[in-house]
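Sanity check. The docking grid for adenine depends on where the pocket ends up, so I'm generating a full predicted complex first rather than guessing from homology. Inputs follow.
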Amino acid sequence: MKFDIRDIKLANKGKLRIEWAKEQMPVLNLIKKEFQKNKPLKNIRISCCLHVTTETANLAQTLKAGGADVVLCASNPLSTQDDVAASLVKDCGIPVFAINGEDNKTYYKHIKSALDHRPAITMDDGADLVSAVHSERTELLKDIIGGSEETTTGIIRLRSLEKKGLLRFPMIAVNDADTKHLFDNRYGTGQSTIDGIIRATNILLAGCNFVVSGYGWCGRGVAAKAKGMGANVIVTEIDPLKALEAVMDGFSVMSGLDAARKADVFVSVTGDISVIDERHFKVMKDGVIICNSGHFNVEIDIKALEKLSKKKRKIKDFVEEYTLKDGRRINLLGEGRLINLAAAEGHPACVMDMSFANQALCAEFMVKNSSKLDKKVYKVPEKIDRRISRLKLTSMGVKIDTLTQEQKKYLASWEMGT
Ligand code: ADE
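Predicted complex below; grid placement will be based on this.
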C-alpha cells in the first residue's frame, strides 16, 4: 500500500483521538452500521481531499465499512493531524497522502497521488480534486460518476465551472444542506475560530475590538461567539442585506478601513481575495492581530504585508510579527491559513457528525442514481437533509411534536381564515 505521512509511530495516539471524536458522532455511527450491513459502496473507488482530522477519519472508516476503496489527501497544508494520518494507514489500511506543514509542491503531489487511485467518486473540501481532474487529469473523467463538495469556497468554484459550461460530471453541494451550513459553518467555524485565535495568542477577548469581515454563516458564527466572550464586535460587509442583518443583530457595521483603524483582532471569513490588504495595513494599530478563517490563504495579502515590512520574526507557534517601516507591528496568525484548523482542531465532532453524514449519504445517493444525474451542481436531496436532522435530534434525546390532522388540513387550505 502506498502512502505518504509524517510518522507511522504516531498511530496509537491517533487511534485514541479518533475514538474520542467517534463518541460525538452518533449519526455517522448509525450510517456506518447500515453501510456495514448493506455495502452500498461496494468496490467504489473514492478519492477524498479533506482536512485530515479525527472527524474525517470517522468518515473514511464509514465509507470503507460501506465497501468503498478509499484514499485520502489533505485539503490544506496546515490542517493535517499527523497522528490521525498514521492511524488511518496502520489501523484501518486506508492510504493517506498528507503531512502537516507540507509545502505547496508536496500538497499538489499528494493530490495527484489521490487521483492516481482513479476514483469513481471525488470528495472535496475546496474543489482542488475536481479542479485538477478538469485541468490536468481529464483521462480520469470516464470513470467518475460524481463528486461532492464540503465547503462554500469549493461550491463557488464549481458554480463557475457549471456556468461556463465546463463541468464534466455531477456534483453535490454538501455545504448547502441545511444540516451542514446552519450548524458546521455557524457553530463549528464560530467556536473553532475563536479556539484557534486563543490557542495561538492566549489573548483576552473581553473588551477588545474584534473585527469580522464577512457576515455569511461562518462570519455570523464567529461574530456571535466573540460577542459572547465580551468582545466589542465590528462587522464589515459588501452585501447590503447581510450588513443590515449584522446591524440588527446588534453589531457595529462600518467600512473595512474604519474597522482596521479600531481593530485589536481582525478576522477575515469571506471566501474572497485580498480582503485585508495594503490599505488596511497602513492604518492598523501597533500590535494588531490578523488572521483568516476562510478556506484559502488568499484573504490576507501577505505579499503586500511583506513589502511594507522591514522585519519579520516568529514569536511563537502560529504567531509571526511583522514590523513595518514606520515601526508599527502586525501579528499574522497561522501564515494566513484557516486559523481554526491551523492552530486548533477544526470544528468539533458534534457538528462534523452532520456534515459527514451528508457526505456519506450523498456518496450512496450518487451510486444509486448515477444514470440519472447530469453534469450539474445538485443540492443535497431534501430527504437526506431531513433524515439527518431527525437522527441528530434523536441522538440528543430531543423529542418534537407532530402536526394534528386538523393542523395539517389548515396548512393545506386556502379557504380558512380566522
Ligand atoms: N472542517 C472544519 N473542521 C473540520 C474538521 N474537524 N474535520 C474535517 N473538516 C473540517
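Relevant for the grid: The domain at 186-342 is CATH 3.40.50.720 (Rossmann fold).
Also worth noting: The mean pLDDT is 97.
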